[in-house]
């Protein structure tokens, strides 16, 4: 019971309602005491008026008047003259005097609580104003036992009534909370458990139905999350299947490229100057293709091989990348490529992986410029800055679309061109992270795009 939301709400409701009733009880009991004392003053005034009307009242009648008024004596001040009207023996000294002519609420509450806390019968003096202006002041002496008994009886009835109201109110709130909150929450929990049993089944996605705004928003957020998760699981399954297919293709392609590599030896023996000039680039391209297929096989195992770090001349790698991409540019295309790398700049990196990264970035820039049909410029520049090697790939293209920016470096979601998969950027970012560096998009817009590679210099020995 205490562990459930409805049970705790029930207990808290009872406590809060009882607290409110106690806050009502304290001033109520003070008001009851004040009314009780006023009633004794009124009775005493009536008894004194009877005596004033007939001075021949005997002792027995006077005693009866005092007994009916529940006081020991009455003093009435009329015309500035204080006069003892009725009197009888007082059993004990007067304990305290209470003036009801203009008391503050705090004083009334304090006196009432002190009276309830004192079980001993006391004799007190009470002073008040006569009703209907029948004098200037009326004063009585009375015992407190009847007052305290009446206050206890009144307080007990108030507490019983408060308890009944609290239980009734708490029950109504309990049923209301159970109907409006607890049952809908249990429904959401049941829907979550049902979905968790088979998250790939779209039929198990929760359908928002709550009428309470907050619960409705929670159900809508849960439905959105479950929809995205189901899509992600399906995509993961497709990626796993694609990975298996790519691994098989890469395995066979590696064998084909290995065979092609054997034929390049004969090409290098050709006497044609053009063939002899292009043969080394062909050999390098086939070698890189073999390395790429081997890396793809490793990637299919959800792991990228660690970089084989070595000191390499960055200008040579940049020149190879630009030469390879220039061969893919058609003769009628107005796309130019340039490199600005200091001749003596040596970086510590895996040459094959760095070539793949730069080649991916330049190829993306070339394809983006080709789609515009207007041509443009692609630049590669590098420098040493803040203890790191900085490499920037720039283009004057139209910039990345918003979707590509939002899913940058995410496979199959961050493609910058129509039909693109986004794998190139994802693989490039992973390779640079393997070097301890970062690949970031510095800026993009109508004036062009800039990607920056930062490689830590670290220990170069």
UniProtKB/TrEMBL annotation:
Q: Entry's SMART domains?
A: HATPase_c, HisKA
- GO MF: kinase activity
InterPro entries given for it?
A: HATPase_C_sf, HATPase_dom, His_kinase_dom, HisK_dim/P_dom, HisK_dim/P_sf, Sig_transdc_His_kin-like_C
Domain Histidine kinase: residue ranges: 248-459
- Carries keyword Kinase? yes
Give start-end of the signal peptide: none
Q: Which reaction does it catalyse?
A: ATP + protein L-histidine = ADP + protein N-phospho-L-histidine
The answer to whether UniProt assigns keyword Ribonucleoprotein to this entry is: no
Record-given protein name: histidine kinase
Q: Which residues form a coiled coil?
A: 215-242
| Membrane spanning residue stretches | 9-30, 154-177
For this UniProt record, give its keywords in alphabetical order, as a comma-separated list: ATP-binding, Coiled coil, Kinase, Membrane, Nucleotide-binding, Phosphoprotein, Transferase, Transmembrane, Transmembrane helix, Two-component regulatory system
Q: What is its EC number?
A: 2.7.13.3
